Amino acid sequence: MSGNRMTARVFVARELRRAREAKGLTRAAVGKALYVSESLVAAWETHRMLPRPEHLERLIPLLGASDILIRIIDELVAGEIPPEWLDKWLTAERRATSLLSFQSTVVPGLLQNEDYARAVIRAGRHDFADLEDMVSARLDRQKILSREDSPPVLVAVIAESVLGQNVGGAKVMADQLLHLATMAERDNVIVQIVPASAEACAGFLGPFVIATLDDGAELAYVDNQLNGEVIGRPHDVAALRRMFEVFRADALPRQQSIELIRRKSEQWTT
């Protein structure tokens, strides 16, 4: 999306929310009526996911919304390129047994605390959804790391420069780095910092994540300034994996990385 242009996908999400609020219904009430989770209703209203046809059949009458929304979804939304990071990639994250994340600009989304996430989203000037809804959605994604049923192993390789980027101010940075260090001590979370002196820094182009799914398939998500792309071509995923291993080879060991993160956090408080 560019400028203030609203896509059909965003229009549908906003109309569903307006119709629900006009009926005086909560997301929880809609979820109960449709036998779905409140978080799924939230995903519909923040255009992260589209209601399935079987849900739409009951949702439209429940909200008293126009049947034209169904036609918009069928004829316009289906023709749009969906925001991959909000749909296909979320499914990949939920199915992942392992995630390999390289980040050269900000702390990975799965490891962000609330204030830092809000500062990142606000700085991105995302005007296509409510800020707080987007923050909530990002925090909701993080639940995969603490689920009881086989949470994925996250290996995050992060450039040292990320620890010094001023995102949200000194307090936000200090708190975020403490949060990152705490997360890095979990059994299923490995954080390694690539020091600024490492030769690998010359090869940094942009952030990416590789997900190994529960069926053994691999997908990658490559981010850029405008949007993201989910990549499934095996040779492209393999190229990213090789790049990840090169960067990780120059990274500090796990414990040294945690110690560096804590020192950097202290520097934000002085």
Automatic annotation (TrEMBL):
Gene3D superfamilies: lambda repressor-like DNA-binding domains. Residues 16-69 form the HTH cro/C1-type domain. SUPFAM superfamilies: lambda repressor-like DNA-binding domains (SSF47413). Signal peptide: none annotated. It holds the Pfam family HTH_31. It comes from the Bacteria. This is Helix-turn-helix transcriptional regulator. It comes from Actinoallomurus spadix.
